[in-house]
Fold this protein.
Amino acid sequence: MRIRHVSPSDIERESFNIIWEELESRGRRYSPEVMPTILRVIHTTADFDYADTLSFSDRVIERAQGAIRRGAHIVTDTNMTLAGINKKSYEKYGGRIHCFMADRDVEIRARQRGVTRAAISMEKAAELQIPLIFAIGNAPTALIRLIELMENDVIHPELIIGVPVGFVNVIESKELLMECDVPFIVNKGRKGGSTVAAAIVNSILYNMPY
Amino acid sequence: MRIRHVSPSDIERESFNIIWEELESRGRRYSPEVMPTILRVIHTTADFDYADTLSFSDRVIERAQGAIRRGAHIVTDTNMTLAGINKKSYEKYGGRIHCFMADRDVEIRARQRGVTRAAISMEKAAELQIPLIFAIGNAPTALIRLIELMENDVIHPELIIGVPVGFVNVIESKELLMECDVPFIVNKGRKGGSTVAAAIVNSILYNMPY
């Protein structure tokens, strides 16, 4: 076999070393604050495009970690992201992780109003009235509704991870988000996804200073 | 807003039209059998690299659909893929979908033997003694163990979807799989992932002839 033996505990470290070296050879510099997130997203996707397109608002990792420590809850737009976030690590800070996409009431309200379940999910999240982090890995319509809810002063998120993927209103919704006065992590362009959203949350979590 | 209004039911169709046009402009031709899978993977990732790297064994879609109709179960190596497969559509054919990664016995056996939980998950699947489709979106060690189990005549999968992602033994494990006498769908190279594995299963499912 052409397979090299690598012990389970070494696989991730060796992967990160390879990513680190390839990033270094490209000669780009990143701030130490955002580097763990860039590394983990590339680890999750094997796609170095993310090194050029991931965008961070000022001091966003520090702010996100503060929100997690204060027990902020996370709302996602896919059950895949929900499954991908390290729940045990997250919930020890007191917060919980929600996805309302498969809820019966969300489906009914979406059909009645002719909008996506993702948009209704965001309205349902707004009703929680607690500090929230949004991890949006799929639906630009979720991002668009969040922006409207912020403009109408209905929600004030601690962080919006805006990494929907696709072809219809995806680029535009991300550009709009980056103009908002809210801490954000966005992947510019069409790419993103549920695994990317989960990787970003986990990267923040695994690098909590305490 | 620069957002165009697109009704929920039109978003997916419009996305697929955009992907179709971009693929056409590249001038590559694909067989009608595999086209729905290529389209859906690009829809999931917004990454046209997959048009060049997705690889299919002979008549694999037809064979996979036959296996699904006969009630084959699916085993995945991540709970994210499990969450991403359309369970309602799948289970109406009689099969079920499993992920053993978080099982306590898998964790214990992996630690005792110094191998990954993904490898042990495949052994646990082999014990099921029923027709199986494997959807591997994360761990090359799962793929490697599957190949060993086939070589030792322990399992005879109906289909292996081999789309692990990453940097250590990922390319090699996929190359080995494509040399095996088993129906496969593989993404050559480093890319892949849980969302890709789920998209491949769903593409097969959504195009069942009856």
Q: What stands out?
A: The two ends of chain A are 43 Å apart (CA to CA). The CA atoms of residues 146 and 152 of chain A lie 10 Å apart.
